[in-house]
Design a protein that fits this description.
This protein folds into two domains: 290 residues, Aldolase class I (TIM Barrel), CATH 3.20.20.70; 129 residues, Nucleotidyltransferase, domain 5. The chain has 15 helices and 16 strands. Helix 2 packs parallel to helix 3, helix 4 runs parallel beside helix 6 and helix 7 crosses helix 9. The protein is globular.
């Protein structure tokens, strides 16, 4: 998937909003390489049933919304946050994103938020919701210090939406509403909730799931409406639909959205609305930087080995502040580098695209065969600019014994078709030969070197050779 917001991501944003999003990895494309988030799975119940969703527990091998390896009580969630914050100093945000709906579980959600205010006051607070109960709880969210709310809204047309939701729960009348009636009931409440958030100064990010067979054309209308309402960011995510997911759509054979389908819809919607393109459709118990999931490093057993008083002590706010200050210094230097590449483009100078394989986004330290995603940069003679992450469905298994036509090389070639150079720690002869068919130069000489410097050096060499050839 793509990783950068639209070109005007942080232009003309009021200073008070810039301050709110500066270190929020989901709301700021520039922040997501530097700051981490944690989702605490304290909200198991849901009040709607989406045909693309299956809330799975004890599932460690899937990375998608609604999946978690554990459910936590509020106090256990706080202990985990303190432990994670002591280990991951760049942690800046804690969110409640399920595995059900945050506001379908108000008791657990609000108790967790209250404890977070008490024990981790330096963290930004977020919730994710389908919007059904949002209007009712906006005042409470503000009272608890929540500044960011994500609402999943997939259609404004009840006919279209009725194909996405199996039922909507009407809590007042204790009934499930199906079909067009249920979809209309949901959409009306979503819009009222979003409007109240915007009117009260909450930053709203809207999530929409692209289901090509159902709402592809409708999402343009959604984007336009969100902009009119003052929603800050629109995140269009591809439908993930595989048989093993056990969703209604997957059972019915509804296919996942492709990279090209997502890109086309994002392009049409980006005309009217600022888009988020670095979403990774995180699990309900995600931990770490966006694009990495370290939840397995912070198991309940490990957290429980500490007492609450010990966790309060090791959650060293002073050290965390120092870490964040260093991050901001680095980001300042990076911003200057990005300006240089933009100046080169304005002068009409040649720039190229470079793909990198990396396990931690600082060094070229990952073999091509193990790469589940590629970091894409634009570079010229003087500057380097990060563009996006491009994921692949399945990594290429390295080694000559795998050169039997079963590798997902065609998908990888498609994703890298506009790239000029691939910098990787190691790559075999077979994939090298395949990638040469799309005129992609592969280079192992920068293995275990810093990314930015390596991209710039490789680009200069590439442009020098190209100029000599001409």
């Amino acid at each position: 998937m793509g990783c950068n917001c639209s070109d005007n991501t942080n232009k003309n944003i009021p200073s008070e909003i810039e301050e709110k999003i500066n270190n929020h990895p989901c709301y700021s494309e520039g922040a997501h390489h530097h700051y981490a988030r944690i989702h605490v799975p304290v909200a198991p119940a849901c009040n709607i049933q989406c045909n693309y969703c299956n809330r799975k527990y004890d599932c460690s091998n899937e990375s998608r919304p609604g999946v978690t390896s554990e459910k936590l009580k509020p106090i256990d969630a706080i202990k985990k946050v303190l432990y994670v914050g002591s280990e991951i100093k760049q942690l800046s945000v804690v969110g409640i994103a399920g595995p059900g709906d945050a506001l379908a579980n108000p008791k657990q959600t609000f108790e967790t938020l209250e404890l977070l205010r008490e024990y981790a006051p330096d963290l930004k607070l977020c919730i994710s919701t389908n919007g059904l109960e949002l209007e009712k709880y906006v005042d409470k969210l503000i009272e608890l210090g929540v500044e960011h709310v994500t609402v999943t809204i997939n259609s404004l047309d009840a006919e279209v939406a009725s194909k996405i939701y199996a039922w909507i729960y009407d809590r007042e009348n204790k009934r499930k509403i199906k079909g067009v009636e249920g979809a209309k009931y949901l959409i009306e409440r979503q819009l009222r909730g979003i409007q109240k958030c915007v009117e009260n100064g909450l930053l709203v990010k809207a999530n929409s799931v692209l289901i090509p067979e159902i709402n592809r054309e409708e999402l343009t209308n959604v984007s336009k409406k969100l902009k009119e309402m003052g929603v800050f960011l629109h995140n269009i995510m591809p439908l993930l639909s595989k048989p093993e997911y056990g969703t209604k759509f997957s059972k019915d054979g509804v296919k996942s959205a492709t990279y090209k389908e997502l890109e086309a819809v994002q392009e049409s919607c980006g005309v009217d609305m600022k888009l988020m393109k670095h979403c990774r459709q995180c699990r309900a118990d995600a931990v770490g930087l966006i694009g990495e999931d370290r939840s397995e490093d912070f198991t309940k057993e490990r957290v429980d080995s500490y007492s609450m008083s010990e966790l309060i002590k090791i959650y060293n706010v002073a050290e965390r502040v120092e870490t964040h200050e260093k991050i901001e210094q680095f980001r300042g230097a990076l911003k200057e580098a990005n300006k240089r590449i933009e100046r080169e483009k304005e002068l009409g100078l040649k720039t190229i695209k470079v793909a990198v394989t990396s396990s931690e986004k600082e060094m070229i330290n990952l073999h091509f065969g193990s790469a589940k995603e590629f970091l894409i940069y634009e570079a010229g003679e003087k500057g380097v600019k990060f563009l996006q992450n491009r994921k692949v469905d399945t990594p290429y298994c390295s080694g000559p014994e795998n050169c039997d036509g079963t590798n997902p090389i065609e998908h990888i070639k498609q994703n890298l078709s506009d790239v000029d150079i691939l910098l990787t720690a190691k790559i075999g002869d077979c994939p090298q030969k395949e990638l040469s068919e799309i005129n992609l130069k592969t280079d192992e000489s920068y293995a275990y070197e810093p990314i930015k410097e390596s991209v710039l050096k490789a680009t200069r060499e590439f442009l020098k050779i190209e100029n000599e050839a001409n």
